[in-house]
Amino acid sequence: MNLRRPRWIWLALALGGVAAVGLAQAAWDDYLLSIVNFVGIYAILAVSLNLTNGFAGLFSLGHPGFMAIGGYVTAILTLPASRKAMFLALPGWLAGIELPFLPALLAGGAAATLTAFLLGLSVLRLSGHYLAVATMGFLIIVQVLIENWESVTRGPLGLNGLAALTDLWWVYGWLLAAIYLSWKVKFSSFGRSMLAMREDSLAAQCLGVNLFRTRVAALAIGAFFAGVAGGLWAHLVTAITPGTFSLIMAFNIVVMVVVGGTGSITGAVVAAVLFSAATEIFRPLEESFEAYGIAEILMALVLLVILIYRPSGLFGSREPAFLTAGPTHKPGNHPATAKGGQ
Amino acid sequence: MTTGYIAQQIVNGLILGSMYALVAIGFSMIYGIVRLINFAHGDIVMIGAFVTLGLLQSLGAPLPVVAVGVLLSGAGMGIAVERAAFRPMRGAPQVTGFIASLAVSIMLQNLGILTLTAQPRNFAFPDYLQAVIHVGAVGFRVIDVVIMLSAVLLMGLLLLLVHRTRLGMAMRATAENLDVARLMGIPINRTIRSAFAVGSGLAAIAGLMWGGKFGQIDPLLGYVPGLKSFVAAVIGGVGSIPGAILGGYVLGLAEVLFVGLLPPIYSAFRDAFVFAALILILLALPNGILGKAAEDRA
Amino acid sequence: MLKVADVHVYRGRTHVLKGVSLEVGRGDIVALIGANGAGKTTLLRTLSGLLRPRRGAIRFQPRADGPEVDLTRLAAEDIVGLGISHCPEGRGVFARLSVRENLLIGAYRRRDRGGIEEDYQRVRAIFPILEERAGQAAGSLSGGEQEMLAIGRALMSRPALLILDEPSLGLGPMVVARLFGVLAEINRQGVTLLLVEQNAVAALNLARRGYVLETGRMVLSGPSRQLLEDPNVQRAYLGGTA
Lengths: 342, 298, 242
Fold this sequence. Notes:
The complex is a heterotrimer of chains A (342), B (298) and C (242). Chain A is mainly α. Chain A has 16 helices and 2 strands. Chain A has one domain: ABC transporter involved in vitamin B12 uptake, BtuC, CATH 1.10.3470. Chain A has helices at 7-27, 30-55, 63-78, 81-87, 92-95, 101-123, 128-148, 150-153, 168-186, 189-199, 201-206, 211-237, 247-260, 265-289, 294-309, 321-324; strands at residues 159-160, 239-240. In chain A, α14 packs antiparallel against α15. Chain A starts with 6 loop residues before the first helix and ends in an 18-residue tail after the last helix. Mean pLDDT of chain A is 81; it is low at 326-342. By secondary structure, chain B is mostly helical. Helix content of chain B is 73%, strand content 4%. In chain B, the strands form 2 sheets. Chain B has a two-stranded antiparallel ribbon. Chain C has a domain at 1-83 and 161-166 and 192-242: Rossmann fold. Chain C is 38% helix and 26% strand. Chain C is built from 10 helices and 10 strands. Chain C has helices spanning 40-47, 76-82, 99-106, 113-126, 128-132, 143-155, 173-188, 200-206, 224-229, 231-237; strands at 2-11, 14-24, 29-34, 55-60, 69-70, 84-87, 161-165, 192-197, 209-214, 217-223. The two termini of chain C are 31 Å apart. Chains A and B meet through α7, α13 and α15 of A and α4, α10 and α12 of B.
């Protein structure tokens, strides 16, 4: 399925986007920039979880685990050798490496993907809420390992003094990559088999969809971007600590995907923007009123309301029509490009 | 590693197991009747602990009165959770119910933080309960004996309820086949509420015990017993009450022995070990030790 | 006794029952036959309150001298209380409960201990095999025994109207014959029967009146003798010439 708007519109949008990022990066103050960066990273997380949970119907609570792995690997690789020696006790070959941002991020993503393969091979035979709990178990195991493997991660103290390498270019570049890949997957035959699997796994199997491989792939791709997001996060905060990658974070990302609509890329992005912006706005309020936890309570309430009254989320499984329909095809004309593009 | 040391570990494991078993029973009862994981179950334990603290400190009430108060508050909370999160999810896919209960859990935890602050509070049970008894090389406090005996008593009462009363029969029938239970004239809303009430009451009492055993409570304390009760229930066969009891004790013993018998460097990995074990069990023995078939609701 | 008038039932977006009407007279035996997927089970579930019709009325008069009640507004558990007992498709016995508990649960809504005990003895007299197996888990019984348990359980609520959903399913002809003999006896003792069956011959032979349901519509009705001799029915449901 292709986007049917004329090519030049996308080009114009792309240039506009580049200009916007450039302006923002130059003109806005650090506080505003960091908020926008966080929003972008959450968007990457939501889009990547949407791939795993939304398209493939798996329910993974392990995403922060992949973030943590990606984040720590990236951080360890970008840290100058001198700081590495100060904090950690790494094996020789690792202790000397110091990589620029991109290779480090890629390595982080790759590490997360590898872990996802291993995890997937073990637990993806489960389904439903058992799978959810198994992924939660994975998250806890990762947390415990990070907190205790002090020679590699410095334990509960985490690593600080990381270079502030993350900026709007990186975040939005990766976000575009994640969206692009998700879009391509969703509207490819592979994506259709994922969706088929989500709707009715028995029927999908009868049609020849290799359930297991599809599920592992869904988990792995999602994990890659989660790992990258972890690396971006670490170099935005300039520190990385185990406490960040908690069940609460897993829950928050799930809320974004569910509220946006499991299976909708646009929904994931919109929900991520809404929620993370809201959290950032609430934070100073929480502090001034000493009312910690209000933002989480509200998020949980919104989730419950959506689950009860509109369980398919804001966008359902679809992408909005103006992105998928176009001048050459009327909605409903051709199944692949009909409204929703399912 | 003397026999005395091992015996001590076993006793500690049994005490911990008693608490896990109580929480796991409630968890399994709820799972059995609505086929959904109640993530907020652990937070009922937390509520029980705080209600205990409140009743002891502000009212200075005697322990039996506190226990009754805790039971009732737990039951009430369970009914509220059922109405808010589970009733609307009836018929929805498993995972939806799971996220809903996760949302409730997070709300409860954050409400706790909001109203009580995240500061841990100290528990002060009356002194006579803290006295230490020695039997041979094994030492334990009076409170530990009380915990174990009351747990066993409660479990016995529960089994009587489930197998010898009309309500218990209704619960078992509803758990097996909701539609046919309706055809029998069983008021399923009331029956499901009762299951939640009883299960949550037990969890709240476990909270009382938890506070007594560990001496410190905070609004996030429900997380650990919640997850561990789930593991215990799965070990024994989720949905089965005897399974939950068995699973609770197995988990308690395994945890204590893991920490007690392995070199200290591994004790921090205790929770990772528990969850790795959970994953293994889900994969290898999905029906748990007592192996009841995990039938889908008809 | 039971009047179903122009009932429309939807499952999701599918229009399953399209204006179905039927009547069951007091003391009667009525058979409802039709192919798989015709909507028979849906109709029974609607009668019992497990499903709600979008349109139409279902009126039930439990006692000849009493009022008529609109079932479409009642909860399933209350419909049982009025005197309708439903023996579901596939028996629906509680496999993990004992035979005895299954029977007792049939009487869940009743409070009259004496009456319940009386009915318990009566059921055991009708189905002696249940007496033998009283303490066993219901799941360990054979198909025929489970059907007997299901019927016995339905009788425990002392129903005025007994609804049976495919009681002969999966049972051998001799068992079916015996079962239907028991049903005739139950009817003689005063229980009205509404019988849904794919086994059209046995059902129409037992019943006095019949209805034929086809893809959600009632296409034929009349005395069962007439239906048995109807060439359309013969061709579609009775395997050619009767």
